Amino acid sequence: MRALGRYLPTPTLSLVLLVVWLLMVRSIEPGQLLLGAFLAVVIPLLTQGFWEPLPRVKHPLKLAWFVTYVMWDIVKANAHVSLLILLPRREPHPGFVEYPLEVQDRLVITLLANTITMTPGTVSTNIRLDGSSLLIHVLDMNEEQELVREIRERYERPLKEIFEC
Amino acid sequence: MTFYVIAEGVIAFLLVAGGIFAFTGSLGMLQFKDFFMRLHGPTKGTTLGIGCILIASMLYFTITQRELHVQELLITLFLFITAPVTGHMLAKTGLHMHLRFITSTRGSIPEFRDEDVGQSRVARPARAKHPWKYRKAKRSRMRR
Q: How many Å separate Cα B132 from the centre of its chain?
């Protein structure tokens, strides 16, 4: 069991790599399966030095729900930004917000920063290297506190619950 | 027969919507006043645009060739992983180069600390154990 852990440190990543490979070559012949399995074992081993210790997903269902409503938010964000570009009724008010982080895990912070960049009019621009806060550029800002609260309730808390950290 | 008509309509709608979203994303580059605002167009406007076109492609090939085509999902996956990273890198570079932004910008850029610009080192968390290095360390301990 320990040998398995050493040569297959991240089973989920290996599985994802195998599936991605099979999707790319569009076949499930034995040869492709073998090659995919080989890549699924070798790539995690080679890239292991780059990885931070990965936190475990404690609630897969919550993660699925999170992904779903982030998708919906992306659609809304796109519609909003497109409207702002096509029908500029008024000048948008851009602004910078310093968002104090609650989570400490680096992977979770990365996920949060990515989510922020993908959703409503916000781009994460800078992260303090000690992980204390995230600098966000907002395309159209009304109230700073409201934005911070929205991100906390909608994205950070669920991520925190999913990874339990 | 009607099934094909409906499917055709859906695919056409998705293609047009995708085109419009991708177009507005690019139009934003032209319209916004400063670098940080222009960044919002490509990072978001295009995501949904390309998403729509890929869904249309999936539907079209699944229906016409009568077999499941899902490898477009891979493009979406790679796009969702890489788009925020490039956006973040661009924004960070903009900050470090002290690019000007329009005067109606609310809030202010917080000052860089020493560790942000590489003037001092930051304490990083311990790294995961490397399989080969880990084994070597064990061997040398046994020799001692």
A: 33
Q: What is the value of pTM for the model shown?
A: 0.72
- pLDDT tier at A160, thresholds 50, 70, 90: confident
DSSP secondary structure string for all residues of B96-107? HTT----TT-BS
Q: What is the pLDDT of residues A63-88, one digit of tens each?
A: 888 888 888 888 887 787 778 777 77
Handedness of CA B48, B101, B91, A108 (dihedral sign): negative
DSSP helix/strand/coil, A135: strand
Beta-strand pair A133-138/A95-100: antiparallel
Of A9, A49, A129, the CB nearest to B116: A129
Burial of B36 (C-beta count, 10 Å sphere; 0-12/13-18/19+): buried
Residue B78: helix, strand or coil by DSSP?
A: helix
- In chain B, the residue whose alpha carbon lies closest to the alpha carbon of A94 is B105
pLDDT, tens digit, for every residue of A112-153? 888 888 776 777 777 766 667 777 777 777 777 777 787 787
Q: How far apart are CA A153 and CA B3, in angstroms?
A: 43
Beta-bridged to residue A127, according to DSSP, are A134
Residues 61-120 of B with CB under 8 A from A: 70-71, 73-74, 77, 80-81, 83-85, 87-88, 91-92, 94-95, 101-102, 104-110, 113, 115-116
Which residues does chain A have within 8 Å of residue B107's beta carbon, measured at their own beta carbons? 95-98, 141, 144
A162 phi-psi bin (left φ>0, alpha ψ -120 to 50, beta other): alpha
Closest CA of chain A from B64, distance in Å: 17
- Identify the pLDDT of residue B16: 93
